[in-house]
């Protein structure tokens, strides 16, 4: 029931004009999150550009060209400017475009972006959640570094950007733009933009609906892609130290708008549209991801009879299903367990019986042997008895004969 | 103590110094512009017996005829038999900031002979708004901006008896204090002297504490030491003793909002006379966004947790209007 809210005029100063300040003060206290993804070939100048953009040294190290797969390296930094605290996360691709077979290159990037959306979605779907404390890791801006060939986009560029345009705000930049002459640059930019258009790649458009910034944003939309040069080194020009690259034939000044579009990039990315980039990520890209993910899982807002169904109901129905499933599987497992136990029992019983049988048999054998032995012993004993009897008899006889001999001898001796 | 930056939560990642100006602080301006363009919503509920000056106070707060009484052409002062909630919305603008203000009135509250359970329709209303928001939030295809009808603030009018809280006050604030931010005020405070007022306030604060009633700003939601100091000052002073009027009188050559009596003019916006300006500053000038944040981050989340757990236990969704009965 949307009521028609009538406009009313105030008779005095109420004070709610401080609302934007109240809101901003809260955010200032909590700090802001901004996450940039830099996609580009190894050595194209991603880290240097980030250093230059944020006027600091992010302590990067050079990557090798021999990465077997594309990896993403994310680093978070806490920056502060006056009273604004920014939690900046810079995600760099490592090894992009280095592989012989680049077919899988973009997949890791897509997966990384989806993973961040998924984390947020998971947090949002939790029962007990803390969204206002959540460290938002979703990518707000994707700087795509185009190699300064001067000709056209590489097929890897087109394929990658096409895969990413519905997931993230893409801002294409021409890297190391000091290697292209002004006239070539102009032609290059036109070629790039027309290729993007003809391939249906939707890059980020700076918003033109707010009168304060529509003029500058419209102008900048026409200058895309930005031709940038990055440098952390400083050169003395006149009496100032400026960020520049020194060549034997001259000095390329990074912040000189005649030399490159760096200042424009910084202006657009940070000073004018940072909040819009964050908003678009949340209200457009994230919502799209969420919608697709939920539909994939089977949730809809209307059931087959076209009556509105709440996510709640579908969720509960699914939960019911899932719980039922779980119960069924639990039952199955229990049955299986009981079955197994029975089988094992029978097995063991069988084994027991076998052993028992063996035991009995052995026992029998043993007793047989024993009785045999007993018999033998008895017969031996009998023999011994007989023998000792014989022996005794023989001895007796011998004794008698000896006595007789002795008596005869005695008699013989007396006779002598 | 240290400045704002130090009192806020400490970051865990290493801090990096910027060698020069980057332009990050421009994001504040960007935010301001965007929020001004989008506009704000604010829903305020007024609860109290008839005759306590609810409509007048709301009109005085927003310096325009925002209450339902002032809008309905054939409004009659009838005591309604039940508590019926009615809301009316207006769009007001100040210095480019647009606000959709909804005032929810509760005629009939505390007016019956038997006032048992008179808070129930109010509790239902508050929960219904949370339910509505939750439903919108759960859609697969959801609106980029969910319309917010949740009650951000409930101003509870205490009659200036000078004694203690009445049972109806305690019952109401106990129940509603759990689901919405309550700001109790002493209505028609011009019948109390300064001493009576101080005593009354002290007694009320004691009563609130004794009954475990949490009113806005709740101590648990103080975000940092600075917040706490600010809010403690407010907590020491509530409930604000207010007087409302839409009439202007001449005092010392200035036109002031006031009530003229035979014994003097009570200047509404004079802090020596009443605490109307304190209330206005709290509700509008300093804590409006905070009221909305507390409603969204705390009260709504509490409701959501309860609601989602409830349906998990019963396996049924209660209260959804369009239920899908097929395929049971």
TrEMBL record, chain A:
Residues 334-397 form a coiled coil. GO terms for molecular function: GTP binding. Keywords: Coiled coil, GTP-binding, Nucleotide-binding. It holds the Pfam family Septin. The keyword Coiled coil applies. SUPFAM superfamilies: P-loop containing nucleoside triphosphate hydrolases. Belongs to the TRAFAC class TrmE-Era-EngA-EngB-Septin-like GTPase superfamily. Septin GTPase family. This is Septin.
UniProtKB/TrEMBL annotation, chain B:
It is found in: Cytoplasm, Cytoskeleton. The gene is LOC118938378. InterPro entries: G_SEPTIN_dom, P-loop_NTPase, Septin. Its main location: cytoplasm. GO terms for biological process: cell division. Pfam families: Septin. This is Septin 12. SUPFAM superfamilies: P-loop containing nucleoside triphosphate hydrolases. Belongs to the TRAFAC class TrmE-Era-EngA-EngB-Septin-like GTPase superfamily. Septin GTPase family. Keywords: Cell cycle, Cell division, Cytoplasm, Cytoskeleton, GTP-binding, Nucleotide-binding. GO terms for cellular component: cytoskeleton. Residues 38-310 form the Septin-type G domain. One of its GO terms (molecular function) is GTP binding. The keyword Transport does not apply.
